[in-house]
Amino acid sequence: MADPDPLAVRRAAGAALRGVRRRGTPLHRIGATPRGEPLRPGLAVEALLAAMQARFELSDDSVERLLGPALADWRDAVGCADPILVPANAQGEAAERALVPVPMPSWCTWLVDSGALRLDGPPAIQGPRVVQPAWLVVIREVELSAVECFPIVFAARFGSGAASLHVHLALSPPFLARDWRGSVCLRAAAQRVDRAHPPVRLWLGAPASPAATDPAAGRSGETVVTWAVDPVPAPSVSAGSADWPTGWPRWAVLRALEGREPQAVWDLTALWRARLGTVPEASSGGPDSGAPGSMRLAVDIGSTSTVVVEEDGAACGSVGGKLLGESSQRSVLSGFRRLAGDARTAHHYGCAEQLLAPGGQLPTVLAAPGSAALAALLAGDTPEAADQVWLPQGPPGPDGDAPEEWVRADRFKSPELLALSDWLTDLPGESALDRAHASRRLLETYGYLLGRALAVAHGAPLVTPDGGRWRLRWPRLGSAEAVMTYPHSAWSTHTAEPFSRVFDGVGRELCRGLRAAWQSAEHRMVPDPAAANAARDLPQDSRHPIEAFVDFGGLTLQITVRVPHAAGRSAPFIGGSSMSYLLGGERLIDSAAYAAADQDGPAGLREAYRTTARRWRLLISRGGHLEQAESPLADAVRETILDAVLALVRRQLEGTLRRAAPDLTGLRGAGVRLYILGEGWKLAALDTPDEHREEAMLRHVTGWLDRRPLLAEAPLQLQRMTKRRLCEGALRVQSEGELDEQSLELQGVDSSSAGSLWKRWFGIVEPDGPPAADLLLGRDDPWWQALTGDAGRDGSLLRVEQWFSVPGSPFRTGLAGGRLAFDGRRSVLKQWLDVSGPSLVAVRIHAALSQRNEPGAGRAPP
């Protein structure tokens, strides 16, 4: 419904005051003359109802039925019949005065926007009531347009239980950009002072409209709720406002959905002014800053952390800023402006102004106020469900090991990884959950929120000096190109769907978030091996033509060996090989926690395992490290992981070279360049502070390789490929021709069929070949015996899902799982490790801990 002529609304209010003999104050004299005696509440109520009737063209019956019961004559004020919500942090000596709500029905805000009602200063608490002085702006003469202003007073009592709620409010974007293309999000959180009581359900939205056939636009939730509004011109917003962008909501209503449902009405412009004061960023004015800018950015979403490298064009216009800079000490903006609430606890409710980014990396985690919000997100019932969760935010100072008051949704990069998440068990209907759908949905939500955070950083206003004053300039954002890196493997082992297809959808959602500030945003895909290949900065050395890329991620360990045709050498028979094992860092954390929990006592195995695993993950995501008392566990984990991972690397190198040059004459004297990727390597240095963990990890890896070279008499060059360098390499990949080709898989271990040798360990897997009958592993393979010990002779080990099904201490039987049938059309080594790998690591860590706990045992050298 379009706004009617403001004169008609003022005339309707003035008609109810024609019996008042005294003259009102001229509009231009408000603030310069005393207020005088307020109108009698009864007269003021009549004028307000008449103005609303004209504003919405209501019948007398509708006015009496819909609006009349909300106002009351309290002799000294126009009373609000329903109790209002006054937060606890709006009261007392240290109160946030701007958080005191306006004591009037929410529909009265329509009269403020129409110019018939003008608030005179902020509301104030007086005893058990909240009082708001105001002016009624009317025209009493039909044939004239003289405006008169009469003072009135609104008042309301506190709602029952409202004083026990602490409230946070935050707005996104955190600046008043008139050309913002995304949704405007207002987030409110309310938590009880007494945490023993159940969480409070909230509703946040627009003021009520008597002409609306549907309920007012808004959103409900528990503890935290976010109201997303598309910035289109609306009747409730004063068009052409100089200090507030057109289409943004000016008023917000927060209602506690309990008891008599007390509600608070706030003027967002007043909250904004109270929070920012007179700083230049508080304004929405200012010119554009020259030519349109452009941006290329690479995104690497890992199982535990995410890195973004942003590269703006030197020949284009400036952007407002970047989300993740080169320095890891730089604060990372969350995309929200905290309007009210305690800054020390705002990060628990998604209302803080900075993201959690230890080491300059964002945790691959979604934060939610509760399991219900996550269930609604996975159900996908409304498009606004993604706005109810947020990227983890950081406290303003050191937080230590303070407990998180939000639900941490992590480990969602793949369905297999999601199955290991402990938060999933708290979701309603978890047993019927489609994990593939849940993983895809969470990944896409994470991509959208990341894109929106990037858009806010890029669209931030530029504050420049201008003649001794500060001037606000707005960046012009033209086009953005996002490069998504992805593992060169299957996303789901059940469906064999590749990561490229899933991350393509994540890229689309990332661009949707970017388009909140950019005119256009597109994405393209680059596999990890191609990005790593492009990121190499070592000179092309003909003495080192053999390359090994070892990506030790959260879910998988992927080893790729490339044997290019070097000048002056014979062409290899195969160009390389690639193997992927479900033996990533997340699974090895579970293995270490399982082994350590049994050392503490098998009686409390489950709870000790859960506590240890969760603590290790928090150490990684929040930047902590293991204490000195845990050094035996750190040593055992380091030795076991390096032994297992690098043994697999050596095996694949030897097997690939044997297939590429059976007599090795064509590769005599060749060296190896070893590139290590992924965050799983850092598990070898969890006892080192986060800022020094990278160099400590490299020191441990280098020491292992010095003691046990991968290839005898072969020179080795080691290069660490961090996530940032991987992103930089992805930006260098310009064409599809630079992408790596498919590589072959090797059997990995000798195998026999029907009592005779079937294939050697360096044999190539034939997916379309004939299946083998009664396939068994070669027990006489010395490498296999060294890797698995007794487990290689006795069949398989327990799967992760079977760990807690064994009574007592499962390590008494070495986690034996019995016989295992193999498919000859797939790598035998991969099949065995995908099933038994975590248990094998747990057995070896448990043995190392037991040896250290023996009397007289000393600490092993690192």
Which key phrases capture this entry?
862 residues, alpha+beta, 7-stranded mixed β-sheet, 5-stranded mixed β-sheet, 17 helices, 21% strand, elongated, disordered C terminus
* Percent helix: 25-40%
* Alpha carbon gap, first and last residue: 74 Å
Looking at the structure, what is the overall shape? Answer: elongated
Give me the number of helical elements.
17
Q: Mean of residue pLDDT?
A: 84
Q: What is the number of strand segments?
A: 34
Largest sheet: 7 strands, mixed
Oligomer: single chain
**What amount of the residues lies in strands?**
15-25%
Rg over C-alpha atoms, rounded to the nearest angstrom? 33 Å
Poorly predicted runs = 234-240, 737-741, 858-862
Structural class: alpha+beta
Report on the architecture of this protein.
The protein has 17 helices and 34 strands. The C terminus is likely disordered. It is an alpha+beta fold. β2 and β3 form a beta hairpin.
Quick rundown:
This protein has 862 residues and is an alpha+beta fold.
Please give the structural blueprint.
Blueprint: H1 6-15, E1 25-26, H2 41-56, H3 60-67, E2 71-73, E3 78-80, H4 109-114, E4 117-119, E5 124-126, E6 129-138, E7 148-157, E8 165-172, E9 184-192, E10 201-205, E11 218-222, E12 224-229, E13 251-256, E14 263-267, H5 268-276, E15 293-301, E16 305-312, E17 337-340, E18 362-363, E19 365-368, H6 371-379, E20 407-410, H7 415-418, H8 435-458, E21 462-466, E22 469-473, E23 477-486, H9 499-514, E24 520-527, H10 528-534, E25 546-552, E26 557-562, E27 576-581, H11 585-600, H12 605-622, H13 631-660, E28 672-677, H14 693-707, E29 716-721, H15 723-732, E30 751-753, E31 756-759, E32 775-777, H16 782-788, E33 796-797, E34 816-818, H17 828-853
Parallel strand pairs: 3-7, 15-23, 23-24, 25-28, 28-29
Antiparallel strand pairs: 1-7, 2-3, 4-6, 5-6, 6-7, 8-9, 8-17, 9-12, 10-11, 10-13, 13-14, 15-16, 16-18, 19-20, 21-22, 25-26, 26-27, 30-31, 30-32, 33-34
Helix pairs in contact: 1-2, 8-9, 10-15, 11-12, 11-17, 13-17
